[in-house]
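Example for tutorial group B:
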């Protein structure tokens, strides 16, 4: 899987003036565009679109410093319709405009080419189970929040506090099927999983009962889920769950190429006790 991913990344280097065909890259990696984008962002720590932008502006910088081409020629060669558009993009990465970089020999930034390798970091394994589920309904409250990769998400914390304990208890009583309890659900995430990008966040319950008035409903299609159980101290939340998600993409999916992610909600169920928290992370997948 990683070899195929590395082959696909070669397309970024081929013609700096041609938009990257992500669908073709995904086909070369023998996967879907959706899974390709998510796998890349988890492994690289940045969205694919951001890597393409940084890599191509790195190549452009070398030509800016080489005075054999005019700045307009460099801009057109790297896919920009005008010198002004190129200058804005160049300054956003390098901190200076291309004209100043050429005149003064300013310090520029370089995005190295990425190559993914599988490394052994420990002897620990990842527990999981695969669940085939019929369609079901999530009922609860929804908010639009920014994506945060690591650490607490203030927007989510404020949203949950605003619901209050009585409302969360009402949601818990609606739960009558797996995944059980009051669920943290994320949906509508940008395919590149850009940090700061917005997503739909639900506090909800999986239920067969009609939705009470005033609650949001998310209909979930029948499908397959890979479920990662975990246990952690209460103080370890939410970083432990964020790392679990990252490990799923960086370790589990490359090691289990028979599965790939599909569009759909990702679901977290957590039960707190005296010793800490136990729960499960549900990720929608399909069998290849």
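The residue assignment follows.
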């Amino acid at each position: 899987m990683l070899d195929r991913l590395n082959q696909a990344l070669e397309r970024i280097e081929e013609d700096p003036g041609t938009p990257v065909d992500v669908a073709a890259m995904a086909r070369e990696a023998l996967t879907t565009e959706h899974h390709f984008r998510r796998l890349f962002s988890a492994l690289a720590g940045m969205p694919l679109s951001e890597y393409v932008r940084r890599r191509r502006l790195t190549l452009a910088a070398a030509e800016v410093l080489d005075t054999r081409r005019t700045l307009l020629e460099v801009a057109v060669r790297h896919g920009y319709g005008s010198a002004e558009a190129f200058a804005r993009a160049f300054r956003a990465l390098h901190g200076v405009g291309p004209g100043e970089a050429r005149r003064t020999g300013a310090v520029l930034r370089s995005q190295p080419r990425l190559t993914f390798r599988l490394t052994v970091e420990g002897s620990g394994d990842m527990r999981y189970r695969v669940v085939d589920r019929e369609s079901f309904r999530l009922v609860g409250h929804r908010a639009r929040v920014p994506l945060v990769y690591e650490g607490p998400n203030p927007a989510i914390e404020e949203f949950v506090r605003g619901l209050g304990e009585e409302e969360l208890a009402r949601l818990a009583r609606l739960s009558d099927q797996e995944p059980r309890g009051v669920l943290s659900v994320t949906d509508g995430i940008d395919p590149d999983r850009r940090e700061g990008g917005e997503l739909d966040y639900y506090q909800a319950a999986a239920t067969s009962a009609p939705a009470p008035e005033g609650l949001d409903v998310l209909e979930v299609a029948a499908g397959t889920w890979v479920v990662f159980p975990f246990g952690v101290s209460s103080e370890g939340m939410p970083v432990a769950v964020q790392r679990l998600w990252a490990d799923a993409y960086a370790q589990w999916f490359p090691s289990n190429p028979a599965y790939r992610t599909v569009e759909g909600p990702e679901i977290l169920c957590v039960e707190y006790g005296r010793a800490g928290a136990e729960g499960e992370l549900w990720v929608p997948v399909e069998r290849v």
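DSSP finds eleven helices and nine strands in the chain. Compare this with the pattern of hydrophobic and polar residues in the output above.
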